[in-house]
Amino acid sequence: MFSTYQEALDWIHARLRLGIKPGLKRMEWMMDRLGHPENKLKAIHIGGTNGKGSTVTFLRSILQEQGYKVGTFTSPYIEQFNERISINGKAIGDEELLQLANVIRPLADELEETELGGPTEFEVITAMSFYYFAEINPIDIALYEVGLGGRFDSTNVILPIASIITNIGLDHTSILGDTYEEIAFEKAGIIKNQTPIFTAVKHPGALDVIEEQAKQKDAPIYRIGQEFSISGHQSVSKGEIFSMKNALHSLEEIEISMIGKHQTENASLAITSAQYLNQKGLISITEQSIREGLKKAYWPGRFEILSEKPLVIIDGAHNDEGIATLVTELTKRYSDRNIHIIFAALKDKKFDKMIEQLDQVANQISFVSFDYPRAATAHDLYEKSKSENKVIVENWHEYLNEAVHAIQHGGILVVTGSLYFISEAKPILRRLLK
Predict the structure, then answer these.
(1) Residue 350 is part of a domain; what is its CATH number?
(2) Residue pair 156/116 in contact by the 8 Å Cβ criterion
(3) Farthest-apart Cα atoms in the chain, separation
(4) What is the dihedral of CA 19, 154, 124, 122, to 10 degrees?
(5) Residue ranges of the chain with per-residue pLDDT less than 70
(6) Do residues 203 and 168 lie in contact, with contact meaning Cβ atoms separated by under 8 Å?
(7) What is the pLDDT of residues 40-62, one digit of tens each?
């Protein structure tokens, strides 16, 4: 048994050596031994390539505004590991995580001796969250973000009251498939029998796959641009304003504080799913809670402005679609600024296209590596860039200090790429900007 939080955390992180092991049998085994805590939860399941965390945040904020006690399971973390299991936006305490580790550790050891093999880091944390929300600190509603894919993701042992698929992009292709359709099939694995599915997927082939899976499961489907739609969008300095219409309601001039047109789509998924569940009597939500919840919703590391003077932005854009969205916003909002981008990526990502897009908007681009097993080297990233003003950075901690102090009047520093890198860089930037 563990006696300290650090011992428990070290044990959890050590399970990264097991890598990714798709499949639900280990989770089902652990759930059975724990008395099936996952079946005691009223849960909403959120999958997709990008926008999962933001959609979870919009939903959580709406529900919290209404007075619900909301549990969230998200990944990865930005500032503290405990964030991954939170209630009403507050991460679980160190003592609680220690308690959970001592519940799951004996099961992991026992599972290690079976033909199924030991659970991965993600499976361990998922099991902890189910037990925590059901047995230790019971909540009203749980929001579960898919870790990878959907069909074989460890979160997919739940039977939710609604499923959401934000969008589909070409990410994790070595595991999920090389085409939009193959990836959509894996994501659509979270669709359950006669359970509503809400989606912002627009790629025709991917949407066809989701529609077919919904049909097979007799699941009501609500699609952006069809059953619900956005209009009147305008960007403002601190967020976005838009109107939304679905079969149930029309809402005019909704305000959100998260930046980017894509966030209006994530917000519309949260609104439509909340209104549907309200109509079905599964939850109770007022228009005021929707409006106030959306306005207050905050998700770290997503086009997050850390400082206005000097202007410093961090954004966990870690795939083609994420980078495309970042570039669009930088072009729309800051085309008159001198843009310095610091970028890090994982080596298993297709970062050549990401860098190609960043080259188009950056006046200067700096490539860094960081201490993570899957991190790409700064040299490999540098080689893919065609920028005339590019550099390889050896010590990114020191370089952040230099870069912040080098921002000229009218300049902007954008730190982007892997969320694992962003989680390391953000606290350092915060200290520098103080």
Answers:
(1) 3.90.190.20
(2) no
(3) 62
(4) 40
(5) 170-178
(6) yes
(7) 999 999 999 888 999 999 999 99
